[in-house]
Amino acid sequence: RSPMYSPVYQSADALINILFSSGTTGEPKAIPWTQLCPIRCGADTWANLDVRPKDISCLPTNLGWVMGPIQLFSCFLNGATLALYHGSPLGRGFCKFVQVWLNLHHLLI
């Protein structure tokens, strides 16, 4: 343990992030995330989507959207790998990225 840093203990309902979603109405909404939310994401994706350590997942949207943290925590808490593409998912580059990962590593999207 580093002598430069010490842990800061928080309650389970302490906020760790505020996500944003436009939802179905098109109006932006703030979604507060507590320390329990990532654990729930990990548990839900393990139980319902069968995310396991052998899996490699890719999300073709910006990590700043609500699905970004869900994908991130789901992969990391279940031991899966998160494949990140730097650039727009609308071009040929992203399609090539997915094709290579699908062929080599059985990527899940």
Automatic annotation (TrEMBL):
EC number: 6.2.1.12
GO process annotations (BP): phenylpropanoid metabolic process
Listed InterPro entries: AMP-binding_CS (IPR020845), AMP-dep_synth/lig_dom (IPR000873), ANL_N_sf (IPR042099)
PANTHER family: 4-COUMARATE--COA LIGASE, ACYL-ACTIVATING ENZYME 17, PEROXISOMAL-RELATED
Protein name as annotated: 4-coumarate--CoA ligase
Cofactor: Mg(2+)
An annotated Gene Ontology molecular function: 4-coumarate-CoA ligase activity
Species, as recorded: Aegilops tauschii subsp. strangulata
Catalysed transformations (reactions): (E)-4-coumaroyl-AMP + CoA = (E)-4-coumaroyl-CoA + AMP + H(+); (E)-4-coumarate + ATP + CoA = (E)-4-coumaroyl-CoA + AMP + diphosphate; (E)-4-coumarate + ATP + H(+) = (E)-4-coumaroyl-AMP + diphosphate
SUPFAM superfamilies to which the protein is assigned, alphabetical: Acetyl-CoA synthetase-like
Residue span(s) of domain AMP-dependent synthetase/ligase: 9-90
